[in-house]
């Protein structure tokens, strides 16, 4: 099937080579910048929002933050004024939303119409029957002569998700790992440079990691559908780090979810991994946030070549008179400590 | 509707019983070639009654007993006037004399946009015009000539895609001798599948389809191929810039059995072979690769007697991509290794039909047709490796993969033409289609043979995956009457009943059709029409160019059939011998239209396609103007369309553009075509065409914005800022198709020099496509350039870039006809 795709690509490339490229003027009126309001209200977490201006697509500058706005968060009828610090367009409220809270976020910006969005914090979901097993996959181990060995550690992670039957629910699963490594002499910074100062003998790194799941009941009800070469469409499988799905096919059931989490084990000359914490975050999210994340993923991960021939993705937005999202979520974290041998 | 049918039948029966009428029936043919003439006019001056010949050149005209003054005419032919006493039914076969440079006063032929016909929105295209229109690489093309008519738009630059009155490319029914053709494109759509040498007659219906046509929403392009000369052998060969064509026609049994054969093949692959050989000279590989397309049309006609004829016709056309790569014999010190790889990719149609045409009586003609049409798309990949060590160990691996998809139809059809009364011409009939869809079948075969230390072992895999075959049955029955209500009012009223059965679901449909004409003066008429149409098939395609991966799929339990109501009205004026004028307005409302969801692409697979599409509605409306001159030294036409086509997808869960109305992909406000042909004598003719249209609609995000990213804290000095810049921005597509590409315009010219030689006529054709080298946009996209720093910070330059694919293209071709 991949070869088939390459033939199609080749066809497109031939057409491009046979063509003539020319810069053209954008001869329509330049569209006005819009206010972008981004926030996600998480249960039991302090609330913050970010305001920026959008930019015209041929304008190559950075996004301009909005620092002169009056931002008000209304929670179940009570207003909370947001404060801002710095010049990054960030506003925070000293209130931690709770599941069931109804929120309205308003921003008053001089010279602009009021920008607002509403959301409701979803109930926290219940999970049970958590089990973990760990497999060291030596077959996929390899040596990178540049500086480290890499091997695959697969963690099989199972749990039961209890879906509420009385409503349409939207979920997200993402997995983080936190490694603890011991440093023998010195270590490498994130950007690959070598630190010449010994500061600590322990070093920790955190990142989201990829996992695989084969589950037609939730994959086929998810929006992680790319083009046809996305095998998930055919097999009901998903491989990535950010799974979005609905309870369309598991409504009201206690559905077992089985993730195969891939944690790369790094061993360089001076760093040895001691153990790794894996944290599976299962989120119950609002419908708007679900659609926003799904469309965002689809637009940002679109293949540039196939994008020429596919329809553009419109980012879901629940912000009135602007762009962005006011999302709402309740996170259930499931930590698991894994000893790496 | 039932009442209307009953009234029509009662009228027919009564009038048949009461009138003292006699019937003149016969066939009108070309005197030199014996070809039947479709759409020729038979008019009685005494009664004012008339008719036109059907698709087999036959007519039946029932007139009152007594004196008859008949005029038989056809565009490009000398008319015949005849006076006689009609006392009994009469068989009247007519042979018209062709003339290419007739005096305009002599010719009073039936016009392509005839004011007297009751048919709306139909245009007949003279084949000579089709061949004279200048086109890409000098290759005369039916579809590209049709694109120059009002109400018809081309898709992208140079392609043979057809968009009629705001409809999609899959909403056009292409009939080749009455049989549907599914993929009408060669070479990604830059050429259509119709070889102009094989074509006899072309009629385009843009709306108000007669009831005997069905199955598509937007148009019917009805193409009839040559029967073959029944007197002597004729033929021709043409060598052009990209293809060679030939045709041959003649009698098998004089005036009884004829044949017509035409073929076309491109030869870029043949010319490329020596260069490939040079390129791989001295390397370890030998390559043989190329691309070509061909088509072959054949037809045999047998006349049993004046009442009975048999037509057997055949079309096959394929595009083929092939590559074979093998290593030369490479022998190393301890082993030898041979590798062979092959690729074969071909797609195309086969159409075959057998038709029996029988005159039951002078008033009743019957056609019985059996046909087969198939489109298929096959990819084959293979590799073989033979590895032999010096010790004699052998390792042979053979891998073969295949991908097949397609659609096949078997059709049985019976049509009747019945002329019971001078004022009625009735068509009725029925047909059934058995569709067989093969969405995708993927086969894999692996054979491994090993011999180690003289011990052989073998293993293999042979699997077939893919969607199972889907069968569907489509049934249609129709009746229509072309009815002269008064001497000035004429109507064509009909109804088609259809049904589609697929996977346990049955979709019935009743499709009324009505068109009428009021003759205001002898040359000026007002026409109006209404048609309801239903379509049961969809074409899955993601691009404006025609890719072989485009798949036809049937409606399903989830995806309901598309349907459309279309009303049209207009004035038609035959301005003496100067030209024919028409102005026509239309409004089309379409339901259950299919659009792809955001981000969806198919790339040749129908798996899960129902989840990737949404259904909505659309409207198209516009005004079409056509001035056409078909006789004289100067011929041609000016066509202009002012139109609008919108879509709305707001069903729950299927919203596009937020449920707002957005322009259809091929919505164009203005579309103008000017085609002029000049033929002063038999030695020379020239043509020029100029097209202008509003730019294509495209989706362009004019604003970009920051995504919600709680963990990001990048700034312009960060190491990862480049990554952040490129990947942490979102595009705001406010509406689909919100942007207009620059306007499209182009001029093409073509000249022909003919010379009569001893054994025939030779023609040199010189044509230039895109004469003033206009760079028309094919695709437009945003291109981000390299970063730069200004006092206000770091920036990235962006620009809007267009790709154009066809600059000025001159071409020369040589044709010899005998």
Unreliable residue runs of chain B: 12-18, 101-110, 713-724
How big a fraction of the residues of chain B is strand?
over 45%
Greatest chain-chain interface?
Answer: A-B, 69 and 83 residues
Oligomeric organization of the protein chains: heterodimer
**Poorly predicted spans of chain A:** 143-149, 197-201, 224-234
Number of strands of chain B: 50
**SSE class of chain A:** mainly beta
SSE series of chain A: HEEEEEEEEEEEEEEEHHEEEEHHE
Strand content of chain A: over 45%
| Rg value of chain A | 23 Å
- Global geometry of chain B: globular
Radius of gyration of chain B, Cα only, in angstroms?
30 Å
N/C terminus separation of chain B: 54 Å
Average predicted local confidence, pLDDT of chain A: 76
Q: Biggest β-sheet of chain A: count, sense, barrel? A: 9 strands, mixed
Question: What distinguishing features does this structure have?
Answer:
heterodimer, A: 341 residues, mainly beta, nine-stranded mixed β-sheet, five-stranded antiparallel β-sheet, 5 helices, globular, B: 818 residues, 22-stranded antiparallel β-barrel, five-stranded mixed β-sheet, 50 strands
